Every structure is written in C-alpha cells, then in structure tokens.
Amino acid sequence: MSNLPREAVADAVTYFESWLEFRQRYSRIPGVQAAVWFDDDLLLSRAYGYADTEAGISLTPRHLFRIASHSKTFTATAVLQLTEKGVLRLDDTLEQWLPWLTGQPLSGITVRELLGHSAGVIRDGHDSDFWQLADEFPDEAALRKIASDRAEVVPANERFKYSNIGYSLLGLVIAAASGQDYQAYVREHIIDQLGLPNTGPEYDPARATEYACGYSALAYADHRVRIDHVDTAAMAPATGFYSTAEDVVRYAAAHFHGDVRLLTDASKRLMQRAEWKVEGTDGEYGLGLSRAEIGGRLVFGHGGGYPGHITRTFFDPEDRLAVSVLTNAIDGPAEELAVTLLRLVNLAESGAHDTDAGSDHAGLHRFTGRFANLWRAADVVLLGGQLYLLAPTAADPTHAPAKLSVIDDHTLRMTGGVGYASYGETLSYEFSGDTVMSIRGATGTSYPIERVRGAAATLGHVSPGKPLR
C-alpha cells in the first residue's frame, strides 16, 4: 500500500494528461504515448499525435514502440532470476559461460561488472554505423568479433562505462546458463509471466502495421525523415525490445517491493542499489537500473534510444508509482516529459499536506483551465487541494509554481512564483454560469485557449483595435 495520497496522485495525473497533449503539439513531436501506474491501478494510458504523419494515422495506446535500452532491465531481471535458482552467480566470469573468450582480455570480466557497466567494455564496437542503419546490427558471429577486437577500453571497476556490447554478451550468458535461446527465456519467464501482450524482445515483422513510425531529428533539417524498423540481432538483450507505455508500467510495477512475480525483494534491492555514480549527471546506476532523486523522491528505471524512438520510464518501488513516456522521434523529450509527472506528484503531495484534509475543494475546480493571450499560455491547476498558476510551455511547469489563494468567488490572488511575476496581484474571473469567459490579470486579459487558437487561425495580423481574441 502506497503512502501517497491517492487524491494528490489523481490530480497530478489529470493535469499531466492535459499537459502532455499540449506539449506534443507545442514541441512538434510526431507522437507521444504515456502511461501511469499507481499502487495496483492503471491511472493513465493515452496517446497524442501521429503514429504515421505521412498517412495521417493517429497514435493510439496500442501502437508499439521500440523501447531500446529498457531491454537491459529485462536482461538484468533474467540474470537475477538465474542467480536465485542457483544456476548463475554474479561473480562468474565470462569465460565460464562463453569459453570462446578464453585467453581474450574480456575473459575474466564478471557478470556483475557487465550488469553495472563497470567492466570497461567498448560501447558499440569500433564501427557502430549500424545505429544509423548503414549496416545490419551484429549477429552472434559479429558480436564475437567485436568482443575479441580491442573491446577492453578502460580497466574494469575504474568507473561507470556504458556498454551495449556488454549487455549483448549477457544475452549469450543467459542462453548458456538457462539452456534456452535468450528471446525464448525472457518471453517465458518475464513477458508471459506478467501477461504483457504488447511486449517482445525483438522486432516482429508479423506485427509491422502495429508499430509507430520512427522519425529523424529537426537538428539538421526542417522536416523529419521516416526511419524504418530493423532487427537488432545479437544486440537484442541491450536494445531490441518493443512495448507500449501501458505494458512498460505494468512491468515496472513488478519491481515494486512486495511483488514476487519476477524476483524476490532481496534481488530487487540488489538491482536497485547504487553500483556507480554516473559522471556528468546527478544520477547513479545499479544492476540494469538507473537511479535518480527527483524532488526528494528516489526513483529507478531506464531510458531508451533507438533510431526514431526515444523513451523513458521511472518507478518508485516504495510509493508504488510508475510512469512511462514513449516518443517516436530521435529527439523526442521523453525524459523531460516523464520527469514532469513525478514533479507534479511531488507538488500535489506537498499541496495535500499544506491543505486542510477535511476542506471541500469542489468549488475550486471552476477556476481551473488553460488560458492564453498574445503573450502566453497559462494553466490554473488544482493539485492536492491547492490552486497553482503554471506555465505549460515550460520544460518544468512546476518550477517556482505560483500559489493562488481565493479572495472571493470571482477573484484569486497570486501568493507565490518567481520575483519577476506578479506576486500579490489578483486574477479577476468573468464567468457565464461555471464557464470561464475571461481572466483579467497582470499581463492583460486572457481567454480560454480554444478561443485564442481560433482567433489566431483567422486573423491576418494583430494591430491596434484588432487584438488576438
């Protein structure tokens, strides 16, 4: 049972849903798919934008995404399952399971060192243009060549050094230890165990029409180029998986404390324990899981980068909260979007603690909504019983949130926010029944955003006496 107030989480998710729809359009992302799991419930499973922009096919929660390095969490889970069975040990060396490495520099690398990215192994080989689809991804024979060709880049246990090749080798270890092909093992012992219908360890051509198209970045062109899906071959344990946001949060929930469908709590805590600080970031890495503290909340998970798809998942095993955001562009801001859900939950939780739990908040909803004028869009949001003025265009809309206090049934006062804003000033509402018609405040009069959007679509220009409204 989570200690988070359910109403606070529900408020955060309600706003997150609206904000994601806005951000997808505002940031010109082809498509965004997102899901939130709390305690034992799926609170959100939505999609925004397009699965195929050229064909005009709308994205749905059922479209499949390549979740790339999320695959490492499945691989690490499989390794810990085999250690629980006594088949495999974390201090086993590679040559114990892959005798073809005997005499090679990587022969003495341990399973644990690979899981924690401390083995010093090359990231993708000396020729990694398969990531640009210039070549095919390495098959097992090619993987063996990469592992035997100057793959020892830095000494083991010197620092965190991310390696897709290291996790690809773990796939071979799992196959050798289990007696099953890697893909067969993870299907039987993880995917089928949890009943995840839209998850698999590698691209499935039979479901080709179900995948969201991937797209290139806008950093080097004015338009996005479609990127085909390909098989990642022997690198599937590092980057091959596909899934949906809904399936991913269901999978993440199996890593909550107390859930023993995949692993014991002891093994989950071993995965979640910090092995290394990740240089250049505020984060750490465990065994197949990243660790981060967001607003005082310790969360775990992984990101994924596949040609055309950028994805991110976080989960809090104590408060039983998980969020996954999948985007179908190589510059998709999946991490930024997923972090926002956590920040919104934190803000709603703080509002719930600061507000009288027995008070009636029903009347506060009439003030909420998304409003705009020539200068900005702004959201009046109810989180945990507290009204806030947030900027939906901000990468972090919760940064320096402006609290709003009720003066009367038509007026709010700003009691927070940044110093350059309008602290202490009022927002005066004009209602028609319970429908907001306009808000007069420091930056002029704002209107429901649909009205301003409609005016922008029809106005040729803004001029004196001809405002955007």
TrEMBL record:
The UniProt entry, under InterPro entries, shows: AmpC-like (IPR050491), Beta-lactam-related (IPR001466), Beta-lactam/transpept-like (IPR012338)
Q: What positions does the domain Beta-lactamase-related occupy?
A: 27-332
Q: Name one Pfam family in it.
A: Beta-lactamase
Keywords, in A-Z order? Hydrolase
Task: Give GO terms: molecular function aspect only.
Answer: hydrolase activity
Per its UniProt record, what PANTHER family does this chain match?
BETA-LACTAMASE-RELATED DOMAIN-CONTAINING PROTEIN, D-ALANYL-D-ALANINE-CARBOXYPEPTIDASE/ENDOPEPTIDASE AMPH
Q: What is the name attached to this protein's record? A: Serine hydrolase
The species this protein belongs to is Phytoactinopolyspora mesophila
